[in-house]
Design goal:
Length: about 230
């Protein structure tokens, strides 16, 4: 007798090894870049709403990188569950979308970028709402019905695709297996402790990666130290 019941896909919720984390980072970046290309094609054909929606999805995929690194450092089962919930949360994955704006405004240090991680900020919810508006019809205000193509302007679509393009190009350091092993070594003992302790650990992580010839990306250990501690050249 054939069982016609649909089998639910089981989402993984266990611990990650550096190898698994590196693979997750690689596929997230690959998909982010593919989504950006699709969004660019839609822009070329004046499909501004759908381009915006795909750009937001690309931002969310790029946002998985930091969440995967956090999964590596979960200290117990409770934190592991919390980090997996964050990984699968839309708003947790798009918190970094204002980074290009902050950089354009002159942000050059970790302290300058603090607004991106401010738990009181509603920018992740705003982006999620825009994604919904770009996909679906809905009623707003005193029952004003909204069509996606009317809700998203060409200028906004172009700007959000530009942000997605910039974020999808990230990667570089702390993406390879060897770098992530050093990430766990240095950040694990101080994870979620005082910011100065974590900053020192991250600086040490970059320094060892560079010393061993493992550091990827354009940033050097010196660049990271300046960024973490606000040191001007």
């Amino acid at each position: 007798m054939t069982d016609n019941k649909k089998q639910a896909i089981s989402q993984y919720k266990g611990r990650l090894t550096p190898q698994q984390a590196a693979e997750g980072i690689a596929v997230a970046l690959t998909n982010a870049k593919a989504l950006v290309k699709d969004a660019e094609l839609l822009l070329e054909h004046q499909r501004h709403a759908r381009a915006t929606a795909l750009a937001v999805l690309a931002i969310e995929e790029a946002g998985k990188l930091s969440l995967i690194r956090a999964l590596l450092l979960a200290r117990d089962e409770s934190e592991l569950r919390e980090e997996w919930r964050a990984y699968r949360s839309h708003t947790k994955k798009n918190v970094l979308y204002i980074l290009p704006q902050l950089v354009a405004q002159g942000a050059r240090s970790l302290e300058d970028l603090r607004p991106a991680m401010d738990p009181q900020s509603n920018h992740p919810e705003v982006l999620e709402a825009l994604k919904q508006a770009a996909f679906y019809t809905d009623a707003y205000g005193s029952c004003r019905w909204s069509l996606p193509e009317d809700a998203i302007t060409r200028e906004f679509a172009e700007s959000i695709v530009s942000v997605a393009r910039a974020l999808s190009r990230q990667g570089g350091a702390m993406t390879s297996v060897e770098e992530l092993e050093l990430w766990v070594k240095h950040l694990g003992p101080v994870w979620k402790k005082e910011m100065w302790e974590m900053s020192q650990a991250l600086a040490a992580c970059y320094a060892e990666a560079e010393e061993r010839g493992l550091l990827k990306g354009r940033s050097s250990a010196t660049d990271m130290t300046r960024f973490l501690f606000g040191i001007q050249e």
